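User: For a reading group we're discussing how well predicted structures match intuition. Take L-glutamate gamma-semialdehyde dehydrogenase. Before you show the prediction, I'll give you the sequence so everyone sees exactly what went in.
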Amino acid sequence: MVALHRASEPEVLKPLLERARLTPDSRRRVMGHALALLADLRAAQNRGWVNQFLQEYRLNSSEGVALLSLAEAFLRVPDPETADLLIADKLGDADWRAHAGRSHSVLVNSATWGLMLGRAVVGEQGGVLRRLIQRAGEPFVRQAVGAAMRLMGEVFVMGRTIGEAMDRMARPEHQGFTASFDMLGEAARTREDAERYFESYRNAIRAVGADAAAGHSVSVKLSALHPRYEVAQYDRCVPELTAMLADLAADAAALGIPLTVDAEESERLEMSLDIIGDVAARPGLKGWDGFGMAVQAYGKRARAVIGWADALGRPMNVRLVKGAYWDSEIKRTQVEGLADYPLFTRKAATDVSYLACARDMLQAKNIVPAFASHNALTVATILEWAGETRNFEFQRLHGMGEGLYERLVREQGYRCRVYAPVGGHRDLLAYLVRRLLENGANSSFVHQLADEHLSEEELLADPVEKIAAVGGTRHPSIPLPVDLFGEWRNSGGIDLSVREVLVQTAQGIAAAPATAGTDAADPGAAEAVDRAAAAFRDWADTPIDDRAAILERLADLLEENRIPLMALAVKEAFKTIPDALGEVREAADFCRYYAARARADLWPVALPGPTGERNELHMEGRGVWATIAPWNFPLAIFLGQTAAALVAGNAVVAKPAPQTPEIARAAVALAHRAGVPQDALVLCPGGPEAGAALVADPRVAGVAFTGSTATARRIARTLLEDERRPLVPLIAETGGINAMIVDSTALPEQVVADVITSAFRSAGQRCSALRLLLLQDDIAEGVIAMLKGAMDLLVLGDPGDPATDIGPVIDRAAYDRLMDYRAAMEPQWIKSLPAPAGGLFVPPTLIRLADMDALNQEWFGPILHVATWKAGTLGETIARMNAKGYGLTMGLHSRIARSGELAEARARVGNLYINRSMIGAVVGSQPFGGEGHSGTGPKAGGPHYLQRFCAERAVSVDTTSAGGNATLLSLDEGGI
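Assistant: Thanks. Here is the predicted 3D structure of L-glutamate gamma-semialdehyde dehydrogenase, as structure tokens, for the group to look at:
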């Protein structure tokens, strides 16, 4: 299973293709059966108004996307003003008129007219109609949209309570079908969430068990039962989850009903198997045949998981699904720079995997199969392989795939179970949208079925032949993470979601030395500049390609020495293991990116001019640059600034922060190994005195600094003090009072996760970290309550321990400053966590402000301030943040696209983050740096950074003075 996890796609698919392949005779029979199923499906698609509505507004239309976006957010918005903004945003721009009268359903056409009316009311160009109903129009539309959203909820949710859901399953339209009830809820964010979900599962089991003869079952999601269901928290979450699942299984066994564990993201698979395996082996459950699990066929390990389930030695109900987290799995793999994807990148490859897994399940000794599919070809293939046996069941999502199974169930004796979500519509719709997106994607069978241009042969094309034709290769539009950026190689990550890898990484870090192991004497500032000045000319004359190649070799060396460098970051800068990994990756990314930019941007450029004249612009090194780095990114920023200056042709004196000299020593040693001449890069450690002497040296031709605004101002003044000194460029990146603005359309669970990451990761010691959370007052108390619960789960401790979320702050001075401030603000604390005894641990603290204007200073640690703003004042709120004078990062959480556009237009910040966390800028993707009190620019990791390190020199040569312009004189007659 480990070998398959990130194996190459062709390698994994080769045996699957043979396992999934049909003989010619089988293929003919399957096609005949699939055509009959297709006819039933199409008939059902044309019967219900909901099916026709979804066909009319598919995901390949802006109108379909608008409706789904509205459905995802509308019911959680408590205030009418924001609800009206959301409606206007989603309905106002779409072309509803293009859909008018097109459907066979009167109800669908009526709904379209309603949407057209809605646009007329909320759109900017409503004309006479808008004026006529302006007074009552928006409340009317709001009520109508609310009713429509609740109706959509009823279509896809079986019931708001388990009792309501069971009553609905007893209706005639569900005759012959059973249900698997999923007590709806996203992953738990707090202990209270988990306890609530556990009780809902327990109540569902009891309710279903009261009528066990009906054959219904309950599905359980492990992430709903524990808010820290993460590999790094294995020792805590796995035993707790095992105990909870065992309790639920015991209840289900006592009542004689089935219980299935749902599948989740790939990083949780091995934990899930540990939990399921433990519960399956419990002696108290012997004789109960109702225990089961779901397997996602899009995963490369799917077939191995089925083999694992069969080998448990007890009956297991296995639900085979295509998979629900495909896009997020792709993104995570790319972001983390992992070797390959844990899943297939082509839809047809997932279909092949599904068929191979299905064949294994039908032939397994201990597996009772359940095949969840809306694909007629898949169903027909399973029927062909199953022959006369009925020892399996089909499954479909409630509200999807109607018509596919009715004849099979009611006339041919097959079994089908409906996967039936249960819960309130407000909580349902984020889930609903994900399922609609999953089943409505352009490549899905459900979407293709609605496409009138596709023939039956195209709909039922053999996925085995499709994949064989491309040799099982990865989708060409989904590059491997290493190739993500094209021009430069993406840095490699470590898959810390694999427990063995995480443990080995932690052990390697613990065993590595805490020093760089170099004994060379450190030069003073004057000596360092002497050496760099002497080396400058030779380095500047080194060809650009050679300088770029040296940076690329340095990036390779960083990755080869990843564990020792991570160990220095953990032991010297108190970084957690994920942060230490990010440090090495970012440093390598800077080196490769600046090498690529140098090759693209630093060559002489020919400029236009009159005949007989050669004009060129040259980019050349300025001389000696001083690069002064902070302790919070002692490798990434230290090397990023230095690598940029070097590749631009400058010699560099690099001064690390006094708190983190050892990681700087290691970095400089690797740079010299990569080919940077010893004196072209000189390390100059020391405290503020060393930095001041370096900046004051008149031979320094430029300064790149990252740190506090106050220090940046002192550097700027020093550079201007000597009237005889040339004007020296200063690149400064400083801090900020970084705010995240949250409106009432935002998903609270996502907001809380992003706040925890942005405010408390790295102990809040990032210049980009969230300092001020601005919540719309209509939702503030609910979000704060969830945030407090999520804070309770944070682990403070040794940064080298994989379970640690927050380590100590950097030094005693920082600790004292932060603790004094906390003490002064104690009357306004909302939440503060206990800190370990000993060590410089500042407790994560939440402080309520009466007004956002009360915060005018950056507090560089795990302290988060909270204030509120009123609906309808987003522009004013952004303006008040701008007025503070800082301009580094800002976040916005909103489902209203126009709010995002307003923030883009009005926010005076270097980096604006919408619906995501505010930290972790990626080199080349999110160039980083601020404005105002937050820096000078240009932005690090961006396309304009290198030029600031260069002197621009224009050369103009009169070629006519040396015998005339031969090219001009030799022109032909132009066709005469």
